[in-house]
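Quarterly update from the structural biology core.
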Amino acid sequence: MGHGIAQVSATAGYNIVLRDIKQEFLDKAMEKIRWSLDKLVTKEKISKEEGDAIFSRITPIVDLNNAVKDAELIIEVVPEIMDLKKQVYAELDEVAKPEVIFASNTSTLPITEIANTTSRPDKFIGIHFFNPPQLMKLVEVIPGEKTSQEITNLTQEFVKSVNKQAVVCRKDVPGFIINRLFIPMVHEACYLQDRTGATLEEIDSAVKFKLGFPMGIFELADFTGMDVIHKATVEMYLRDKKVIRPHTVVEKMFDEKKFGQKSGEGYYKYSDDKYERVELSEELAQKCNPIQLVANVLNNAAWLITNGASDVEEIEKAARLGLGLRKPLFETAKEIGIKNIVDELNRLAEVHGEFYKPDPLLESMI
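Predicted structure, tokenized:
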């Protein structure tokens, strides 16, 4: 993520310092940037001169003081471990000038909690790029409780300037927008398999062909990485039991190091490093009714709206750019029928508990 964000920012004309704790990590990152730029030159997306100019705007530096001395914006991209994030910001807070903006590229950790460990919570914001940043257009911008409006505006302008599209998650809620929709859906797909006996391919075909996803939910989970999904699950569930109903399979796969595409096995098995697509079809899609999955996603979307974290338009934009949805979420819901979805949630709540209780917004939409 770090070298991807550096490349995207340098492409937009910014002078970038790329910092890590060891020179070898920086060398590897610069190699990847060079490779990526050379590929763009080969495809004639940019000229050789443009590629060289972009590369020259990125300076790798190990020494932290030296790295941040001229910084205006610092984007932190360390792993999703709260203690590590806090440790990094304690170091940064000591050496960065007071006016420097701190932006965390976290996908699930609470912005307010990290911000409060610094002396500048008003200049602290979440800036969640999607992977890979070179290709994905969406960036979630998440102000913490004390983030000033000026910093939120500046961050949105920065996102626009690097040729990305921002959606603002107006409240610092677990999972923000995309992960609040996506991560619980992976668990629900496991429950759907338990309840209906449908195969992975049948569920994935229904998700792809009936719900307009670019790939099946299990396929998408394997592509994302079960290590990432498990970590996000733990963090989100820790902070809000209503957001997710963890299925044991996700933790089991994590413990068994079945991380998906990257490890050769997840929900599906993969023979080598090249990306393989699972065989899905319209025919298989007919064997599975994905209403329970739609109900789960819609309920979380409604929760975001009810709690003032987002609105329909921003959620649709996020789902289109971040999940690759080919059809608006609420349009799919209307086709299935809001009443049918609410009835399904009520039925699930009766059998499996309060977690499935429909959001008041959904009930009001009938």
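The chain has a mean pLDDT of 95.
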